[in-house]
Amino acid sequence: MEEIEVKFLNVDQEKLQEQLVALGATKEFDRVYRRKVYDYPDLRLNAESAWIRVRDEGDKVTMGFKKRIEPGIGENDAGMHEIEMSVSSFDTGWQFLEAIGLQQKFYEENRRIRYVLDDLEFDIDFWPLLPPYLEIEAPSWQRIDDAIAILGLNANEKKICSTFQIYEMNGIDELSYDILTLERQIKK
User: Fold this and answer.
1) Nearest to residue 163, comparing CAs of 136, 130, 115, 122?
2) Tell me, what DSSP letter sits at residue 171?
């Protein structure tokens, strides 16, 4: 399944929240996500611009495979392929991955504030060492364009990329960390 989403970097999160409320969007939550990211010992998924993660979203735990579609040079890809499923617990998910021979690349946390307007999701993400950014997810690329228009954003500034790429754009090697949370960043 293709994940249809774009990002806008370095947003004024307070202004953006005011704008979303004024548009009639509903604030769904403000919570911390935690995740463990995995690969084979030879990092073959990384070589294919792919990874496996277990993510605790607060109200559910998911395990997913993600792969960049036609990875672009620098900032933009053609999209993201994602296969995701629910698992019973965060610990069960990562224990399963380690039992089948995958190794943890890093542990990471981020804060996410979600607003919903009709079929559009607006996530304001706070990641360690990065300025806040906006992620817009929709059921179609046309609805992405609609969301960009209603917020008055410049469509030329949208990014179709992973957080890993945003770290790279900011000169940060995400893979050089064992733990990357808002409170602490521990390098390997």
Assistant:
1) 130
2) T
Amino acid of residue 122: F
Cβ–Cβ under 8 Å, residues 25 and 182 = no
CATH fit for domain 2-187, picks 2.60.40.10, 2.40.320.10, 2.40.50.140, 1.10.600.10: 2.40.320.10
Going from the first residue of the chain to its last (188 residues), give the mean pLDDT of each consecutive group of 10, the final group possibly shorter: 90 97 98 97 94 96 91 69 95 97 97 98 98 97 98 96 91 95 96
Phi-psi category of 152—alpha, beta or left, where left has phi over 0 and alpha has psi -120 to 50?
left
Strands (E) across 11-140 are located at 26-39, 50-56, 61-69, 79-86, 103-117, 120-126, 133-137
pLDDT at 105: 95
Which pLDDT value is given to residue 74?
Answer: 57
